[in-house]
Amino acid sequence: MRLDIEETSVDTIYVTVWASPYLPLHMGKVENACKMFQDHFGRQLQPPIGEKRVQELGNWVRKEFRVRGNSWDSSSVDIAAAGLGWFAIGLKGDAVLGVWIYEGVDVVLRNSLIPYRSHTFEVAGFTVSKIVSQSDQALNKTHKRNDKKVKGIDSKVPSSLVES
Questions:
Q1: pLDDT computed for residue 18 by the predictor
Q2: Structure pTM?
Q3: Which residues lie below 8 Å from residue 103, measured CB to CB, with a gap of 6+?
């Protein structure tokens, strides 16, 4: 799933991503998105089912949402994708957002489900919250542990118990 901020009447939009901490997030500029997708698909950008089965997901399609908000103190609207999570959007003004998703995944615009919680994570600029940073660290530790197990090295298991 991809969210593009395409037009806006404001200088600042707060976007809070509500999803599994194991869902990798990537932030960048719209003008670099297609190249990043092509260059990193199957590695950094990978559907959970794996690169070989991506054709089963169908076509990559764009849906447009026109959103309006009256405050930065809360999320005004959510853009929710079935089974994935949602973007909570906080803004004071209007914006046109493009959402890229695989065909058949239901994406809806709704009133904010948790309007005042997003404010806790809002930081000026292009940042990743402490919670996301901590979940990334946890995920990286899990990957390192799994890599060690695959190589036959598990720091928590005495070497005498590791089979060769």
A1: 87
A2: 0.66
A3: 58, 59, 60, 61
